């Protein structure tokens, strides 16, 4: 009763922000994303009959029982146990090859990999839509990391959440884009995504007007992706990003993820675009800026971003594959 899976994080081009049900992690509105190859989470789940509680090891360190990170994993594993015919405790080992809880969507890749590994180890064989709906229970954005390339998260309308899952739009081979992640600080962010979106939803006067734009933005972004219209996709992505952050900043108290380098990157990307470079930005719930460009423009984009003093690292990603199992012989090698 053991399985290992990997998954990549994704970056929302039409943002996910706000929940209509916190217990089931149901979104207020849909979202649209690109899965990022080159960044990944690998997770091994072993159900054991010789341990008396679940064990969770993250990036080589065992998580403290009762901590929030530990509880999130254990509660998710319990969902899988509830659907299977066993009650063994689990040993979960998960590792990211990029910073954890720093605004780089580690929860998306983490829970997508956990969903696939935990269900496979338990002998459950789920359809992609079922796996996506399960991954959503751990992290709303994880539902999209089940798929490679571009994916749309459907809001759904059912109270039980069975129709709230992601669906593929176009595979990773559809469009040869690059995403350059400009890292602007080290360590975990001060306000988690969950805390930030709940505070925004509860107190920001801009939240509902922004959420009302999402459905139209998804249609516009989907059309741009299918036509490979870079300018059109950039326009809707930046609009969705700035609208989301504006609603967060207007919360009480305001939720501000940006730092001075974040703002400098926004201005520098806009200036580069005026100078003829094909480029646009988006920013998740964190200070790092994700800059998109066609593959042929990568060298020029890296040069522009590398000139900004507050950027500590540039991480290059391309359209990535969906979550997948790792063969046992590869794990043991």
From TrEMBL:
E.C. numbers: 4.1.1.33
Chain ranges of the Mvd1 C-terminal domain: 179-307
SUPFAM superfamilies associated with the record: GHMP Kinase, C-terminal domain, Ribosomal protein S5 domain 2-like
Highest rank taxon of the organism: Bacteria
GO terms (BP aspect): isopentenyl diphosphate biosynthetic process, mevalonate pathway
GO molecular function: ATP binding; diphosphomevalonate decarboxylase activity
Family annotation (Pfam families): MDD_C, MVD-like_N
Protein family: Belongs to the diphosphomevalonate decarboxylase family.
Name by which UniProt lists this protein: diphosphomevalonate decarboxylase
Organism of derivation: Lujinxingia vulgaris
